């Protein structure tokens, strides 16, 4: 009985210790050189956004115009945030990609990066010792070097799932009548950023920022008020996602 009790105590301590290990949504190559990133700079590729509304029945509808709106906001904020924190960054516009005849290369890069990111984030939260020692490669020399392409490429993906007003009202009614929590996750969004070394094909750093938004926090709307809300949401999401990168840079300095 005494030995069994000691075993249970030891097991409890081991479980507690394992649970207490710091976890993170960041992924970082073990050989990632932060200073090289600051010197070489980044080329920001156009953001890809996917926005859907969900009705009471669960049917989804793509919001293509709103997707373009969010892509524009995210691209501009990424450029601003990186420059403000001392990173040489440029934005490669869709028109530039077309004019430089690299559309096929960018498409191939995104396809390979998407598959690799799905593997990296099969588990969203990882212990830091594992997350900071990844080895992930999508193939060297993804985009031909030109004056507008820096050594490092920044890929960004944004997704938003938003309930329609009818679905919100139904969820709120069910919460009141039955005591459910259907209205607690009216909107959900995820911003994912990945930095790829164009020379080696390594994903040297990435982060994911999933968020749940309250019942009365819908983004999709119209007018200046909605636009201001979108800008604030984008700025907050990008700052939260890039914060670990900027923090690492401050440590090195």
**Tally of separate helices:** 8
Radius of gyration: 21 Å
Straight-line N-to-C gap: 56 Å
Q: Can you write the helix and strand succession as a string?
A: HEEHEEEHEHHEHEHEEH
Q: Report the β-strand fraction as a percent range.
A: 15-25%
E-strand count:
10
The low-confidence parts are none
Structure, briefly:
By secondary structure, this protein is α/β, with parallel strands linked by helices. It has 8 helices and 10 strands. Strands 2, 3, 4, 5, 6, 8, 9 and 10 form an 8-stranded mixed beta sheet that branches.
Structure notes:
The protein has helices at 2-19, 34-40, 64-84, 94-99, 103-120, 128-131, 165-178, 223-252, and strands at residues 23-24, 27-28, 42-44, 48-54, 60-62, 89-91, 126-127, 152-163, 187-197, 203-213. It has 253 residues and is of the alpha/beta class. The chain has one domain (22-252). The strands form two sheets. Strands 2, 3, 4, 5, 6, 8, 9 and 10 form an eight-stranded mixed β-sheet that branches. A two-stranded antiparallel ribbon has the order 1-7. Strand 9 (187-197) and strand 10 form a beta hairpin. The chain is globular, with a radius of gyration of 21 Å.
Task: Present the secondary structure layout.
Blueprint: H1 2-19, E1 23-24, E2 27-28, H2 34-40, E3 42-44, E4 48-54, E5 60-62, H3 64-84, E6 89-91, H4 94-99, H5 103-120, E7 126-127, H6 128-131, E8 152-163, H7 165-178, E9 187-197, E10 203-213, H8 223-252
Parallel strand pairs: 3-6, 3-8, 4-8
Antiparallel strand pairs: 1-7, 2-10, 4-5, 8-9, 9-10
